[in-house]
Amino acid sequence: MSRNSRIRKWMSRDNYEEVMEYLSLDEPKHAPVFDFEHAPDELVDLIAHCLEPRGEERSKWLNDYAAQTWSIPDGEAKVLFAEDHLNAIRYVNRYLRRANAKLVDDGYFVCGFDTSQKHRAQIFSKYPRFIARIVYAFDFFWHRVCPKMALTRRIYYFFNRKVRKVFPRPEVLGRLYYCGFDVVCEQYIHDRYVVISQKKRPPCRDPHSYGPLVRLNRVGKDGKLFTVYKFRTMYAYSEFLQTYIYNNNNLGNGGKFKDDYRVTEWGKVMRKLWIDEWPMIVNILKGQMKLVGVRPLSRQYFGLYTPEMQALRIKTKPGLLPPFYVDMPETLEEIQASEKKYLDAYFEHPFRTDWKYFWKIIGNIVFKGKRSK
C-alpha cells in the first residue's frame, strides 16, 4: 500500500448506514425466528408500532403503552414494554427483576438498547480513523469500564447525570437470562437492538462479578458441582447463555460452540496462548482437580454426553491438561471417544497413563502449537 493510500485510509470515516446495514444482518444471524402467529395480539400490535417510521406519533404511542403496562399490578401483565432503552437505566438488573415480578408466567418483556457495535460505528463515522481510534479507547474505558469498577463507579455517575452506559449484545442477553427470562427473538429495529423475551423462572440471586477472574460451576468427581477459576475471556453474564447459544449455534469443530459471539477479542488471544486456564491451578491445590484429566464441564455441556460417558467421567477428578490435546478431536462424538480411551487406560494404570499423556500434551502445545478454539 502506497503512502498516499495509507494516509487516505487513516483520514477516512466509516459510512454509518453501511455499517448498521451489515450489523443488522450479522449480529442476529443466529437468533431464533419468533412465531408471531401464536403470540398475543398485544405483542403483535406493539411490534407493529415499533416497526413504523420514527416520529412524534410513534414515540407518543410507545411511551403511553409502556406507562400503561407498568401500571398493571405485579404478576398480572401479559406484555411489558421497557420505559426507556436499557443504556439509560442505572440499575439494569434491578429493573429486569422488577419486570419479572410484573409479568405472568410466560409473559413477554420487550426492551431495546444501543449495542456496543453501534456505539463504535457512531464514533468511527464521526471522526477520521486515526482520531476515532483514540476517542474509542477513551470512550471504552469511560463508558464500559468505569461504571463497573467500585473505585470509579461513583465518579462516573457524578459526571454523567444522564446515564449512557454501553452494553455489548451478549451482556444484555445474559442479563435477561440471569433475571429469569428466555430470549425468543432479537433484531435491529431501525438502529436500535430490540429483544423479545419471555418470563420462565424467578431471577437468579447469585452475585455476579465483572472482574478479570471468573468463578464457574463445573461437574466434578461423583457428579458434585465445584467452582473453577478462570481468567475472563467472555463478556459479562455470558455464562448464562450456554443453552441459548447451543440451541441456536450448535457445535463447531473441536466441540466448542459454533460462532461463539460471547468471546471477546482479548479473550481469543488469551485462549490461543492458553492463559485463561492458569487460575485452575488453585483447584488442583484444593484437591478438586488433577494435572492431567478430562475437562471440567458445565452442567449444560455435561448433559450433551452419553449416559455411559457421564458415568465414566465422574469416577475421577477432572484435569487441567485434557486428552483433547493428544488426539485433537473435532466432533462431540470424537471428543467422547478420546476421553473414553484415556479413562479406560487411566483406571487400569493411573500414574503411567497420566505421565504418558502429560508429555504428549506438553509436546503438542509447546512445540506443535496445538490449541483448542
Characterize the structure shown.
The protein is of the alpha/beta class. A four-stranded mixed sheet has the order 1-2-4-3, sandwiched between helices. It has a two-stranded antiparallel sheet with strand order 5-6. The chain folds into two domains: 31-115 and 167-199, Translation Initiation Factor IF3 (2-Layer Sandwich), CATH 3.30.110; 213-367, no CATH class. Strand 1 (77-81), helix 5 (92-102) and strand 2 (103-113) form a beta-alpha-beta unit. Helix content is 47%, strand content 14%. Helix 6 runs antiparallel to helix 7 (129-145). It is globular and about 75 Å long. The model has no long low-confidence stretch (mean pLDDT 90).
Helix % is 40-55%
Mean pLDDT: 90
User: Low-confidence segments, ≥5 residues, pLDDT <50?
Assistant: none
Order of helices and strands: HHHHEHEHHHHEEEEHHHEHHEHHH
- Major sheet details: 4 strands, mixed
Give the tally of structural domains.
2
**What is the approximate shape?**
globular
User: In what range is the share of β-strand residues?
Assistant: 5-15%
What order do the strands of the largest sheet run in, or round the barrel if closed?
1-2-4-3
Distance between the termini: 32 Å
Strand elements, count: 8
